[in-house]
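Hypothesis: this fold can be encoded by more than one sequence.
Test: take the structure tokens below, design a sequence, compare later.
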């Protein structure tokens, strides 16, 4: 964005500014065109995201958190199922009395 502002405020030609910055003049021209059309929203990778990109980022993060919560609940469910039931030879689940003395005290 600073390069584009330099084009707007300098009296030098765009090609000279591009050479001074070590970039192609076509790249600087493209940046200048985007900035003139979209303003500061033209460069979302510089910390500026469009509302759509911001919503997408938020939904992806929320989705990841929900997956983590689901995985934890699956593991806890399997743990408690294994701790509270004992499988007999016939495959029937039978309640098992937990030894409360073996549990850590809170």
């Amino acid at each position: 964005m600073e390069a584009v502002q330099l084009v707007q405020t300098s009296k030098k030609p765009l090609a000279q500014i591009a050479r001074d910055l070590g970039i192609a003049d076509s790249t600087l021209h493209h940046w200048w065109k985007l900035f003139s059309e979209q303003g500061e929203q033209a460069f979302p990778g510089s910390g500026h995201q469009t509302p759509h990109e911001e919503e997408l980022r938020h939904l992806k993060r929320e989705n990841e958190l929900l997956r983590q919560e689901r995985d934890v609940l699956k593991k806890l469910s399997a743990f408690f199922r294994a701790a509270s039931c004992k499988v007999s030879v016939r495959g029937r689940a039978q309640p098992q009395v937990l030894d409360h003395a073996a549990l850590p005290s809170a």
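The first strand starts at residue 85 and ends at 87. The CA atoms of residues 20 and 96 lie 79 Å apart.
Hypothesis status: open.
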